Amino acid sequence: MTEFLDDTRLEQSSVVANSAMNRDRRLPAYRRELGFDPVAWLAARPAPQRWLDVGCGSGHALFEAAQSLPEEIQIIGLDLVGYFAGSPCAGVDLVTGSVLTWTPDTQVDLITAVHSLHYVGDKLDALTRMASWLTTDGHFAANFDASSVRWADGSPIGRKFTTSLRDKGFQYDAKRRRLTRTGQALPQWDLHYLGADDHAGPNYTGQDSVASHYDQ
Asked: Who's near 46: CB < 8 A, 6+ residues apart?
């Protein structure tokens, strides 16, 4: 039987604590992977705005974004590894930490997570936390593989889970594996987290990922 890891042990795993994988992305990757332009979205709203990027990697994309946005827009990059690059830039704060333990000091208008949730253990707790950080009209957009949320025996929870996502105000695009929502919430799940498997193998991206296991 697979031994499930708690989140402390998982974050020390070579699959998760990898300083190179998916971490040097630039701003065009956000538009391509999330299906919308974070910079255009922020620029169209009245300042000040706050953007939190979960799993920001090196931070290159955030530095690029700051060059096109008013100084009143605050950009926060959160990454578990903290392998940051680039020169200091006004309006960009880079933080080393976990989405499961770190908390912003105030609500944020935009939260993005480009392929970073593939490496989180308790994915449902992460979704609850991020939804609670949004402003009332804030936007959340992430890459998300619903098949990585599984029962104890390793089988995907499947339609029961995707239905629950939609019931709680998330929109899930199964074809593109994108998860979005608008507005603050504190969703509660009828599933109990058992732990994570860092040997789940490659997901749809072709890279190793983490399966999250639950029971009722």
From this structure: none
